[in-house]
Amino acid sequence: MLIVSSSQPHANPVPRRRRPFDAVYAFGDSFTDTGNTHSATGPSGFMFVSNLPYGSTFFHRPTNRYSDGRLVIDFVAQSLSLPFLPPYLDRKADKSSGVNFAVAGSTAIIHSFFVKNNLTLNITPQSIQTQLAWFDKFLESKGCRDSIATASQCAAVFEDALIWVGEIGANDYAYSFGSSFSSQTIQRLAINSVTRFLQAILKKGAKYVVVQGLPPTGCLTLSLFLTSPENRDDLGCAASANNQSISHNTALQAKIHLFRQKYPKSVIVYADYYNAFRKVIKNPRTYGFKELHKVCCGYGGGEYNFDYFNACGSPNSSSCNDPSEYINWDGVHLTEVMYRVMADAFVNGTFSDPPFSYLLWKKRQSV
After folding, report:
1. How many CA atoms lie within 13 A of 345 on its CB side?
2. Which helix (H) or strand (E) covers residue 297, if one does?
């Protein structure tokens, strides 16, 4: 069993030959971003990520992660005896053990769609296709290009690499909220974009891929804040948003099933964010959570302690004494403890299909 550690990575890294993977390449949005986005370019309303108390629990300083500490991808890297993944845009970082291409505010649908349709909430000009372009550029530096002549170089890159596709698509629904576009249209466009992304990396030779679904976005404080009390499901969350996530995940899993048939030599794991999160909501005390929907870092007190115009990190905001008792950190993002619980559910638990242990077994068989 891999350990999703609550401590720092090994001071003396485990020798490469004993690690399951030599590198991890990650993609996604703010749930996965380890520093590609800074305050000036982050999602509107959550632009104080460069201020404390972001990062206060583990790093004791802001790292441009949208949490009080580590994210799912950080715990995954630790469980694989690898260092934290540096953001791609950090030109000076050591990228020998992987790179994080995720961008906070990023969408599945290409950015120009939101600009063309005047959906101005999207101030982040990156999408999953942007991240793919960055990845292509990085691969070129490794001698891996889209040509037969470099097939061996590409094989060398992917042989010992885990591709981790963090959740992507939640922003697409958020940015189009209240517009003339139906959720079905957004879903179709978003799934098509993610499909093109997965097709591209599998065609390049990716052998070990994990794809996260969307969490129950209706359980994020912002969704509860924006919807009426009548719009609630059995989790006490915004039913409309959660139904949207369920539908999106169903469509995504259908695409993954097709890719497994088309690329039988690759292992493609679906990480079930929705149901892993749901289990916590249904059994919060088991994990030490006392607050399901109220934010740890916010403003105003009351039921949610949330005010969009006084978001976490802003001058008027404040944070709770013990983030480990909270699921929601700032209204859209989760606390370090919740991210750790999710990572454990994916890596060691029953919320990956096939299990993550199967992916590791297949990797060992290839040696």
Report:
1. 22
2. strand 297-298
**Residue 244 and residue 238 in contact, taking contact as beta carbons nearer than 8 Å:** no
Which position among 30, 81, 97, 319 bears the catalytic label?
30
Q: Strands, DSSP E only, in 34-160? A: 98-100
- CA atoms of 346 and 355, how far apart (whole Å): 8
- 353 is annotated as an active-site residue: no
- Residue 88 near residue 36 (C-beta atoms within 8 A): yes
User: What is the dihedral sign for C-alpha 24, 25, 29, 33?
Assistant: positive
Residue 27 dihedral angles phi and psi, to the nearest 5°: -140, 160
- Joined tokens for residue 50: 């460069």
Q: Does the active-site annotation cover 30? A: yes
- Helix ranges (H only) for the chain are 72-79, 111-116, 128-141, 151-159, 170-175, 183-204, 221-226, 239-262, 273-282, 336-347, 356-365
Burial track 285-298 (b if 16+ CB lie within 10 A, e otherwise): eebebebbbbbbbb
Measured distance CA(296)–CA(319) in Å, rounded: 5
Contacts of 203 (CB under 8 A, 6+ apart): none
- Of 111, 248, 293, 333, catalytic: 333
pLDDT at 12: 42
Domains of the chain: 16-365 (3.40.50.1110)
What are the angstrom distances between the C-alpha of 351 and each of 21, 202, 269, 271, 302? 21, 23, 10, 6, 34
Structure token pair of residue 218 = 């209706």
Q: Which of 35-39, 181-185, 258-262 has the lowest mean pLDDT?
A: 35-39
Residue the block writes with tokens 């992304």: 197
Provide mean pLDDT across the span 32-58. Answer: 80
Q: 241 CB contacts (<8 Å, ≥6 apart)? A: 173, 216, 217, 218, 220, 223, 227
What is the amino acid identity at position 228? S
| pLDDT(321) > 60 | yes
Of 193, 330, 344, 352, catalytic:
330
* Whether pTM exceeds 0.90: yes
pLDDT one-digit tens code per residue, 224-239: 999 999 999 999 999 9
Q: Under a CB-based contact definition with an 8 Å cutoff, are residues 353 and 270 in contact?
A: yes
In the chain the first and final C-alpha atoms are separated, in Å, by 19
pLDDT one-digit tens code per residue, 265-275: 999 999 999 99
